[in-house]
Amino acid sequence: xxxxxxxxxxxxxxxxxxxxxxxxxxxxxWVPWKLELHFQxxxxxxxxxxxxxxxxxxxxxLSITGKVDDYRSKLYGMxxxxxxxxxxxxxxxxxxLIKEVLLNRSGxxxxxxxxxxxxxxFGDGMPSVYGEKWVRHRKIGNTAFNMERVKEWVxxxxxxxxxxxxxxxxxxxxxxxFEIEVYGDLLxxxxxxxxxxxxxxxxxxxxxxFKLQDEQAVLVSHAQKRVYIPGYRFVPTKENMRxxxxxxxxxxxxxxxxxxxxxxxxxxxxxxRLYPPxxxxxxxxxKDIMLGKLHVPSGTQLYIPLIxxxxxxxxxxxxxxxxxxxxxxxxARHLATFFPFGIGxxxxxxxxLALVEAKIALAMILQRFxxxxxxxxxxxxxxxxxxxPGHGAHLIFQKI
Length: 400
Known about the structure:
The protein has helices at residues 5-41, 56-62, 67-76, 95-102, 116-122, 131-144, 147-152, 154-172, 183-199, 207-224, 238-243, 248-259, 262-274, 306-310, 313-316, 327-330, 351-368; strands spanning 81-84, 87-91, 109-111, 177-181, 281-285, 289-291, 294-296, 301-304, 369-373, 381-384, 386-389, 394-399. The protein is built from 17 helices and 12 strands. It has one domain: CATH 1.10.630.10. The N and C termini lie far apart (98 Å). The strands form 4 sheets. Strands 1-2-8-5-3 form a 5-stranded mixed sheet, covered by helices on one side. A 3-stranded antiparallel sheet has the order 4-12-9. A hairpin with a 2-residue loop joins strand 1 and strand 2 (87-91). It is an alpha+beta fold and 400 residues long.
């Protein structure tokens, strides 16, 4: 005898709910518990996780700066396990293991896929694609951003720098000493450079887009710290050619800065050691592997805290927290002890451009001004996708 339609519908809904309940228990209780035991047997511990969200609350609260890594390492050791929802995150701090992870080309260790909210910012750009598509994109990008091409962009970088310094001169007026919050201007400067060099445009033309991107970056930064719940052109211009006709002495000094690190490079290196653009890197294991002596199950996320490595006193000495540009020559560095732009196949594509920008900008600033940190500056490094000053960067300038 057939069941009445309403009873059949009720029974179907009941089975569906039971199935969802069992899948939830398996995903958020049974599998994490087994993985927890697996890591504990290997001597690894970590902060206690909560149901469903894992340690995301703690990640959101403490990952404002790299101090979260110091905090955890003091409690659980340099290698520990935390949880992003039901996903285990294994902290990898040993340079040999970091090298093994980031240089891996087998496809077994890959970037963690973006959830739909985060992907709205990155779209199908380089950070979002994988496999053959990524190989094609990367090959094009490597050609576009190699050092010889970047050197061709020096006039555009110089023009953008000069525009920023002229703005500071106007703001200072007739005063010989004045204060400026420079972080916003430096953001506009880098946006103007990438607009001119990579897109044949200017920051002013795309200002609205950059503003929207900044707003979206804040939302994406918040989203990366939470468990995702579904539903919740390279053409030389006349202006570039004109800019090559710089004062001979200035042009020669700029070229020297590009070709040789010297003191400027050491200063930039030390700044990047203390505050790398990204505080951490994230990878995911797609197959059971051995990482050093650790057996790492498929699905485990590998968390590489750059700031913790860059501030490690065992690597950099007892003064690891202090700014000391000379240490870059004093310290024999392992490949994976200083990697502000990453290492391996996914190293930052814009590394050459970023370093040349920084050298030129610093050299040109020092030709016009001396500067010091303002008493109003508050040191509060914050992470909104990248490490940045939480309350701006206030400097006191003196005209030369």
